[in-house]
Task: inverse folding
């Protein structure tokens, strides 16, 4: 087999098995090759890469289905730009310097789907949630719930509860920890570290511990305290419209308005959301706190202006998929054998001294666009070649020998059924493609 990577290629014979980072173990070897990697990074073995490729294929397929076009951006940015928008989450940013000494930071590793432009309210936001729902459903790694909220609703709640506007972002950052901390712990941090009075925090708690659907939205729209907040009313009207669109998209059963959701990043200005995994507890589905969110996003209308020298605003809403968390969950729960290559045919020899014949045949298959392999030995045993196909899931074996050569034919073996047919050599590619199409 051949292992490839972005920066180069490494050829490994069938006798070498790649294990998970940081070790590579060679079969029959006397020790391990220790590969050191920077803190926070890792290598991926073929099985892990097969899982990751399936995740990315699923995500990209969904993005394209919704009309997305691809862009790429640098992995690092000027530090001051990131810190302007990350608020108290700036501790999550890794720092470095460029050759001129300018301070840079690595951006988050995100898989983004964004809709940018001036559109009617909540239509792009609803599609982002639809994209999130499609991807998480397709990956089939567990039941999930998409929690949604609105920063205007939160800011309205803070206002009617007596929080000064200068402390909105700070309170949001603390509230965002509620999924990892109890309400009492969050309350304690707000009081002792953020300087919010206990009475004010208790008032906030009356709202942020609520969750539900359209009925909750209607109840909040008629709340006499929130009625005094223009921001809260605007946010609730947005949410009512959003829930109507999500009902039309057929995903409302996976959506919950959760007033505790804060998304601590400073640049969010409207709808915010995140998807969490659920697990069974006492016969009921509960949020799996140990996993955290597996996808998240929201509206960030003012962010683009901070990058534009003229300060032009571009309304934006987006969703990011938590590939690393999803990968870890799928890897942990995957027990069945996974194909680590897409090889369709193994070119094999039935007897000795047929390396030249195998090389000519495999070259013809490659030129025809067929994914093919052969053993990197002059005289491999046929049994070993057939066993390799069964172990790796290669569906077909093209077998040549002296008799096949003299008759101008190739033996084509179905690895699953172990049945063989004789195919004229000039019809081999046609027959292989016909079988692969099935």
Result:
């Amino acid at each position: 087999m051949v292992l490839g990577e972005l920066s180069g290629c490494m050829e490994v014979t069938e006798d070498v098995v790649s294990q998970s980072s940081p070790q590579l173990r060679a079969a029959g070897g006397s020790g391990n090759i220790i590969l050191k990697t920077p803190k926070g990074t890792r290598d991926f073995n073929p099985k892990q890469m097969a899982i990751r490729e399936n995740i990315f294929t699923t995500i990209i397929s969904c993005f394209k289905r919704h009309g997305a076009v691809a862009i790429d951006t640098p992995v690092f940015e000027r530090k001051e730009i990131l810190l302007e928008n990350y608020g108290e989450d700036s501790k999550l940013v890794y720092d470095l310097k460029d050759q001129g000494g300018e301070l840079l930071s690595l951006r988050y590793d995100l898989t983004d789907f964004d809709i940018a432009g001036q559109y009617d309210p909540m239509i792009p936001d609803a599609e982002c949630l639809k994209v999130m729902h499609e991807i998480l459903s397709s990956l089939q790694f567990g039941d999930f719930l998409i929690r949604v909220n609105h920063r205007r609703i939160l800011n309205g709640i803070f206002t009617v509860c007596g929080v000064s506007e200068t402390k909105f972002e700070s309170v949001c950052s603390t509230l965002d920890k509620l999924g990892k901390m109890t309400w009492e712990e969050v309350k304690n941090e707000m009081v002792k570290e953020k300087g919010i009075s206990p009475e004010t925090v208790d008032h906030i708690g009356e709202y942020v511990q609520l969750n539900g659907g359209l009925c909750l939205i209607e109840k909040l729209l008629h709340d006499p305290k929130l009625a005094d907040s223009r921001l809260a009313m605007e946010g609730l009207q947005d949410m009512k419209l959003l829930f109507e669109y999500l009902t039309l998209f057929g995903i409302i059963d996976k959506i919950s308005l959760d007033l505790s959701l804060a998304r601590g990043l400073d640049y969010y200005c409207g709808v915010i959301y995140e998807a969490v995994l659920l697990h069974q507890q006492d016969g009921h589905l509960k949020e799996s706190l140990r996993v955290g969110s597996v996808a998240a996003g929201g509206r960030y209308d003012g962010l683009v202006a901070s990058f534009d020298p003229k300060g032009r605003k571009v309304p934006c809403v987006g969703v990011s998929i938590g590939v690393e968390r999803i990968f870890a969950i799928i890897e942990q729960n995957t027990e069945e054998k996974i194909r680590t290559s897409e090889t369709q045919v193994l070119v094999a020899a039935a007897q000795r001294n047929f390396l030249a014949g195998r090389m000519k045949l495999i070259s013809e298959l490659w030129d025809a666009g067929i994914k093919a392999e052969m053993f990197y030995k002059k005289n491999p045993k046929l049994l070993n070649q057939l066993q390799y196909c069964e172990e790796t899931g290669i569906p077909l074996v093209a077998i040549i020998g002296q008799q096949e050569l003299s008759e101008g034919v190739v033996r084509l073996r179905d690895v699953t059924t172990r049945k063989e047919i004789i195919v004229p050599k000039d019809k081999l590619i046609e027959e292989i493609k016909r079988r692969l199409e099935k």
Summary: Confidence is low (pLDDT under 50) at residues 1-32.
